[in-house]
Design brief:
The structure is a homodimer of 620-residue chains. With 620 residues, chain A is α+β, with helices and mostly antiparallel strands. Chain A contains 13 helices and 24 strands.
Chain lengths: 620, 620
């Protein structure tokens, strides 16, 4: 995103280099493991070959789902960001992928490997599930990334041709339709930013305004599934399919900001507020329905049936990021941080070769083998456990492009000021200073910020997370206690000045609003931006997870680099024939123990296990 | 069901006449409203015409889903039971329906209006979703009902031809397949009972043994969805699609009992026990997944996302009934009673013109208009609110056939003994006595049982429900306090003797096993066999349901024919931006009130409302 308007301006990916630590290590993992892994799978499954076959002009059998093209585009985007940040290992692969893709583009700009050839379904014959415009949107995003990273015009030319085709076909007076899955809006807005061609932004706006007018055929999931029940500017909360809703909101935020449409922007701020207040998990995860991968009603947030699709986490970051840039409010960066640590970082395994598609907050039974198809990939994305690949494999490449571009989320700038949005070690080149952040956050809460080559009169704004009551901020000869949930202002920084932020990293208990019925009588433990969890492998031998409760009044403590809580085991008697009984019939023996918690993003790395984020409190 | 073996023997529907009261009134509603309503809809939507068109031999466009035929069969079955109990108002309709159906039968016995004609998909080309054998099973059940009720051979001849076809096609060495939806097993077992032709029972047994061998193609829902993951005799618990699982279990119980297969019977008893102990709602409802209409994992019983399909309730009654007859254990009749009152009676509206498809235990928002298709019927069965009809309209005719045959569930007999299984007013002709039950149960707990024309030496066994601690049983000159959860024995009843049972009807609180996490810190209220609920229309003006909690230590009391509980309102402050906070941050003002509860089966009859069965206890 290279906002032309708004309060904060982002840095280019090439101006933000992570050096080490939590996110730097993950960027390296992305480069060495995740990207090659994803590229291998989409090659092995012939999703790349779809383009090559399409270019041949001969009939072929399309492999993969309707949106298989988009996975290739997302990996092109990821590798482009890798190049932008100086990693060129996959440059040859990138060129091959782009050549394959571009060879398949039709003379009129259209590009989709599943539609429009004589032996295929016609173009634009399935707006519900066809994902044509969705794939186009990813193509445009990838092309812009590639152009920004390399200056190479090839893919950008393809993007212009494709976008020109869309502008002709879907202009007012043309096809009065929208795609079942929002995404084209984001691509068009980005292409406008890259090319300055206003038609693209206008067409994005047309799609945003057309959504909610009932152009998508009725389906049992209801119109809200595709956000086609209400106009974007009339809605109060996100609803329906979570990824669709969040991509749409992010695209609408682009349009609102870039066109100065304050009504639309304010509608999106309202939707963000209500969605976060009532439809978001402690992890930042969104979407509680398995059936339609959708947001539930307010406060329907069951931990054991949480869906929290990884892509919804990525999309939530995209939406919050745009509102952050537009409004300058720290709460958007807070949610980004929460979601990055607890959804985006949770999906990939430590070795980068397996991924959670859904991110449950409560695993009741150890993973059983999921259903695999003849290609050896998991049929249903909601399957438990991290898996190498999925029939619907949107999540791994989405993680890849997010990690590759993560540097851009750390520091922003505005007139005469620099904002430290995230505490990530790296070097960041702004227009008014070079910022070096040194920290092993979130292991420690100490963040050193060194500012060099400063334009005189520049201020540094440092986000103090909402959970960070008691933060301390030191600059030469001065220490302050900035309030949580806003930016701390360091005025007039001096060239070479070091600023030290110390965030309070004591583990803390959290309860949920009473209306989140599914976790009544339970508490969760958080430490800094990380949600912690109780995983069965950390329990005393023979203790089943579902017999463990927090000791009443227990406070989590940090010891030996881990967080520990006092628990009790409440052994279940043999199953009653009927699991409901009069209230008085309970008097279990309590066996105490102290157990260590796992960081949620690290769970399921030590063999088969069960896990819960929300831990019942004994006696309730 | 007319078991040939087993501990208890059922009465014919014609020997059991309900007279009045809770179930008698519903049988009348079924006759005057539900059956005509269902018949009108399936005529209006051309599901009946499918048969007429098929008979014409000309190409036609099939209307409705793959299982539309079966809805017509279920209504034939329902009207047949109506005739058996002496109601002949729909006899002409019945004849017309049977004539239409039989005219469509192929010369080789095959009968399905969606498959096998030149312009249709081939027979047996879709075992996952085709529902061919499923429809056959309903045909067989309907034919047996019709033959029993009328003695007319027409439909039974059709059933034999169809079953003969099945026995040829699916015998060992023939098509090694099972239907995606169990049901044929029940029909074949019943047809064996009616005709004595052992091939039908053997073929039912073949289907039972073939299930679980992986003959159904893989699907994202996994093999357990169709119970194709494990052989029936190897499973420990019901899993997958709830109606499929329960129909299969009921059919397997038929086979186990009638073939004397004790291993299979014991496997089914084990599955019933574990399913009831870990996967059943307080209402008796089964199935907690919307996505696949399936059982969840153990203790995944969220009230707000309960599915509890009405047909799963009907199927649960069928399964329990077969185990009751086979084993003679009262717990099966207990679950039947709970399920009849709280699932089967909940589905139809008071006027018999609308039905719950899913039976939620927690309605968070007042019903919004569901998605209707061009026929004006509800697209998704899980839609909130009672609806006139559904695209998938299995539930209304299933309720109809259950209510019409309900008389048969009340009294059973064994050698020298009669069992009172349910407390339903009516006259029941057994082989050793005429039993008259007079009661307005469950309004009152008093049940009068009068026994006439008694064969000397006959005993009466009366089920004392598991919840009925403190029941009193009186016969001439004798009063006893029979233990709950078993049959009370009244030996050697005298001709004309009156037995009085007084059941304790004080409302009682129930809590759930700790592992049912979704209702931790909440209690439910039950009275007799009925689950009660808190419905928003009974709250003080302006109180939202989600701000109401049970007063700590409150005990429900009965007053003016209703059950009342003390509650407090805990007003929510304006939404926090984030619904999770440190535990100490709560200190709401409590406003007390006393509110009346609604019987769960009566909820949603007084306009738009919200509702909950499990009520949070204040202070947890």
């Amino acid at each position: 995103v290279a906002f032309r308007t708004g309060t904060f301006r982002p840095l280019a990916v090439s101006d933000a280099r992570l050096t080490e630590g939590f996110w730097g290590d993950r960027q390296d993992l992305n480069d060495t493991a995740i990207i090659p892994h994803a590229a291998e799978w989409m090659t092995k499954l012939d999703w790349v070959r779809n383009f090559e076959d399409a270019a041949s002009g001969l009939p072929y059998s399309h492999r993969g789902r309707e949106f298989a093209d988009s996975e290739v585009y997302k990996i092109i985007e990821a590798i482009s960001w890798e190049i932008a940040r100086g990693r060129t290992d996959h440059a040859d692969l990138l060129d091959r992928l782009i050549s394959s893709v571009l060879a398949a583009q039709e003379p009129d700009g259209y590009l989709h490997t599943l539609f429009g050839r004589a032996w295929q379904r016609p173009r634009y014959s399935d707006f519900q599930w066809g994902h044509e415009l969705y794939c186009f949107g990813h193509f445009l995003q990838a092309a812009v990334a590639h152009h920004r990273a390399t200056g190479d015009e090839r893919m950008l030319r393809g993007a212009r041709a494709l976008a020109d085709h869309v502008c002709v076909m879907f202009a007012p007076g043309g096809l009065d339709r929208v795609c079942g899955h929002a995404e084209i809006e984001l691509g068009l807005a980005e292409l406008w930013r890259e090319t300055g061609d206003r038609r693209y932004l206008d067409q994005a706006s047309v799609f945003i305004e057309r959504r909610g007018t009932g152009t998508i055929p009725l389906h049992e999931f209801g119109r809200a599934f595709w956000q086609d029940d209400l106009k974007v500017r009339d809605a109060d909360v996100l609803r329906g399919h979570a990824v669709r809703a969040l991509y749409l909101a992010a695209g609408a935020a682009d349009v609102a900001a870039e066109t100065g449409d304050d009504e639309l922007r304010s509608a999106l701020e309202r939707q963000w507020r209500q969605t976060v207040a009532r439809r978001t998990y402690l992890t930042g995860g969104m979407g509680s329905h398995h059936m339609d991968e959708a947001f539930g009603e307010d406060f329907v947030l069951p931990p054991d049936r949480s869906y929290c699709e990884t892509c919804a986490g990525v999309a939530s970051v995209m939406f919050s990021w745009r509102l952050l840039l537009a409004t300058g409010e720290a709460k958007y960066a807070d949610l980004i941080e929460r979601t990055l640590f607890n959804v985006v970082a949770t999906s990939p395994s430590n070795d980068g070769h397996a991924f959670f598609y859904a991110n449950t907050l409560h695993q009741r039974v150890t993973h059983s083998l999921p259903s695999l198809n003849e290609d050896g990939v998991v049929i249903r994305g909601g399957a438990a456990g991290r898996q190498a690949w999925f029939e619907v494999s949107c999540c791994p490449p989405n993680v890849a492009r997010t990690l590759a571009s993560l540097g851009a989320y750390v520091v922003t700038e505005s007139d005469h000021a620099i904002q430290i949005q995230q505490f990530v070690a790296g070097v960041f080149q702004t227009s008014s200073a070079t910022v070096r952040i040194s920290t092993d956050y979130p292991r420690s809460g100490t963040v050193e910020i060194e500012v060099d080559a400063v334009t005189p009169g520049t201020a540094v704004h440092i986000r103090i997370p909402a959970w960070a009551d008691g933060a301390r901020l030191r600059r030469t000869g001065d220490e302050t206690a900035p309030p949580a949930g806003d930016y701390a202002l360091v005025a007039d920084v001096q060239d070479g000045e070091r600023i030290t932020l110390v965030l309070p990293m004591q583990p803390r208990l959290s309860r949920a609003d009473d209306r989140v019925d599914a976790v009544r009588g339970s508490l969760a433990v958080e430490r800094g931006p990380e949600v912690l969890a109780l995983e069965s492998v950390d329990l005393p031998e023979g203790w089943p997870l579902d017999e463990v409760a927090l000791a009443s009044g227990a406070a989590p403590v940090e010891r030996d680099g881990s967080v520990w809580v006092d628990v009790v085991r409440l052994p279940q008697t043999d199953d009653a024939d009927w699991p409901y009984a009069r209230p008085e019939t309970t008097a279990a023996t309590r066996v105490p123990a102290s157990v260590s918690l796992v960081r949620y993003h690290d769970w399921a790395e030590r063999g088969p296990s069960t896990m819960r984020v929300w831990i019942p409190v004994s006696g309730t």
